[in-house]
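Subject: Sanity check before I submit

Could someone independently write out the structure tokens for this chain? I want to compare against mine line by line before I put it in a report. The sequence has 126 residues.
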Amino acid sequence: MMNFFDVTLAPPRADHILIAKYIVIVLSLMFVPYISTLFGSTLLSLIYSFRGKNENNPMFSRLSQDIADTLMGGWGMAIVMGMLPIFTLAACFAQMLYGAEVAIVQYMAVTLVAVVVSIVLAMWFK
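---
Independent answer below. Compare away.
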């Protein structure tokens, strides 16, 4: 199977690998808190939504909606902070692991699909 990044990326130099490492660090510092906040706010919103329906209490339903509106953000944030870093991380790891027999791009593609599905479901719930 032909690797997309092996065809599009030139063989890396030492400075390319160093820059890719710094990009991975910065993107990880952005991506992990965003995904954690998205997961936590979705979980809290689900809990309070079910609790509001079970107890027939509109305050819990309102709290659920407020958490979803405040912490989940919009589609723009979901694309920039959730989906784009995965694609960029795949390119950086492909650059750092150029020539290695590692299927990092395929693993990152599976991760990207999982993140896209989870973000779409979270925004649909919102």
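---
OP: Matches mine. For the report I'm noting this point. The helical segments are 4-8, 14-55, 58-71, 75-96, 104-125.
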